Amino acid sequence: MAKFLAMGDSFTEGVGDDDPLRPNQVRGWADRVAEVLCARGDWEYANLAIRGKKIGQVINQQMDQALSMKPDVVSLYAGGNDILRPKADLEALMRSYDSMVKRFADAGITVLLFTGFDTVDSPLFSKTRPRTAIYNEKVREIADRYNTLVADYWRWREFSDVRYWAVDRLHMGTAGHTLMAAKVLDVLGTHGVTEGNWSSDIEVPVLPAAAVNARGQKLRQDLGWAREYLAPWVKRRLTGTSSGDSLSAKYPDYIRLGAESS
Q: Which residue segments constitute the domains of the chain, with CATH numbers given?
């Protein structure tokens, strides 16, 4: 029985891909990958990711548990929440990230890392682009050092289309998570982790026609978004709280996950 374990923050928990029947009420790309793995082969799946977690928290709260579960493949993406904090010491954090990846690699576990998304077209997050570029270069150096797999989110330009994103503009929506699942399965298949490329098992939704909004309508949408999503996000940053503070991992133990699992 092969074991796939996912760890990290909201990206891997599945925020933006709503599903009220699942733990934490989200599905996400990792669940979608696991569904294909479990349907196609002898796989089990666990997911320790929780929204809002920073690199240090992933190391302190998820790494030891993940190692004790002895996965065959572990996916790891953390750092987005650190990049958003200009005072965070990215160099020191990435040294810790390196040490974490080394522990998995030394244990003989196949590691899948992610680069960060290119925010060049984001009015809100474009100023974080230089820090994301540094993060990505560090990730690629770590991948070279420990011979890990890389899902190169930065270079997958399809995700620049706003229709792949959730209404909060912070996370991928259902279409984005579905596309990411296909991309990850392609990486796993290309590198022989799976017996063949199973990405075709993922049916990526057809995107709706792009909305064309008048200037006044767009302004009203932006103001509504700022009230509903941006203001609470800023408040959490100022108060040192996280949307994941009251949540537990979706799947802390291995399961056989099907598309209808809850």
A: 2-208 (3.40.50.1110), 211-244 (no CATH)
